[in-house]
Amino acid sequence: MSKNKDIGCNRMLTIGEVSKRSGIAISAIHFYESKGLIRSSRNQGNQRRFSSIVLRYIAIIKAAQSTGIQLKDIHKIFNQFPPNNKLTSEQWLMFSSQLQHILDQRIKKLIRMRDNLGSCIGCGCLSLTDCPLHNPNDILGKTGAGARILEDD
Ligand code: FES
After folding, report:
1. Angle at CA 96, nearest 5°, toward 7 and 54?
2. Tell me: the pLDDT tens digits for 83-139?
3. Co-location of 106 and 136 in the same domain
4. Ligand 1 atom nearest 138 alpha carbon
5. Is the domain of 90 the same as that of 138?
6. Which domain holds residue 18?
7. Hey, whose CA ends up nearest to atom 4 of ligand 1?
8. Residue 6 binned pLDDT confidence (cut-offs 50, 70, 90)
9. How far is the centre of ligand 1, averaged over its atoms, from the C-alpha of 30 (Å)?
10. Which residue has the higher pLDDT, 70 or 2?
11. Residue 66, exposed/middle/buried by CB under 10 A (0-12, 13-18, 19+)?
12. How far, in Å, is the centroid of ligand 1 from the Cα of 132?
């Protein structure tokens, strides 16, 4: 057997191999599976086996989570594609553009937070000297709860 066959996309992996290669705990793999983010099949001995494509899904989950993207948003994207299959280039393009859209939203929010934390954030406390300028009489409170300047999309 050639070495390349061992790392081919159709190879089925044990949960231990997935854990070792992806760098996440077995309990995290179970958790992702219970949330429907990844899927396994069972072999004849009723043991879990994962398609090697699961490594890419886990890498994306880890990277997305590290940027604060919620699992439910990742799930929504993953769910549009057939589980345990190699995706086509078009599918990866669709996949990545949806993830990029979520990242763009997060980046916008992070920039707003970075730029506004030192001034009035529209939370209703009216504690800063510039609050009367940005949120006179807590007028922003009428648009909803929370820090209106930070939380508006
Ligand atoms: S910082 Fe709270 S209302 Fe301005």
Report:
1. 30
2. 777 788 898 899 889 999 999 999 988 898 898 888 999 999 999 999 999 999 999
3. no
4. 3
5. no
6. 7-114
7. 120
8. very low
9. 43
10. 70
11. exposed
12. 9
